[in-house]
Amino acid sequence: MLFQNKYDRARKWQIEEKEKREAIHGPENRKNDVEIADLLEKGDLYALVSSAMLTIMPIAILVLLIIALAGMLFMRIL
């Protein structure tokens, strides 16, 4: 791998941090990690989905129109 040394150091650091957490909280208390559901509020999911649609959909529609127009142009030329 290109960055094998960096990967090994990062993995070693992760293992050390995990061992530190387990030493402090105990191995049975793994649920203390932050999850995405803990960070979201009631209307956040709707806001995320709607903003993604407003950002991604116009670009996707434009790309599909270009592909369709290119296909139509190609069929008319032949």
Explain this structure:
The chain contains 3 helices and no strands. The protein is an all-alpha fold and 78 residues long. The chain has 2 domains: 1-33; 39-78. The chain is elongated and about 70 Å long. The two termini are 47 Å apart.
Gist of the model:
This protein is mainly α and 78 residues long. It folds into two domains: 33 residues; 40 residues.
H/E element string?
HHH
Number of strands: 0
Low-confidence stretches: none
Query: Any idea what the radius of gyration is?
Result: 24 Å
Could you name the key traits of this structure?
78 residues; mainly alpha; elongated; 2 domains; 3 helices; single chain; 77% helix
List the helices and strands and how they pair.
Layout (H helix, E strand, L loop, with lengths): L3 H22 L10 H4 L4 H34 L1
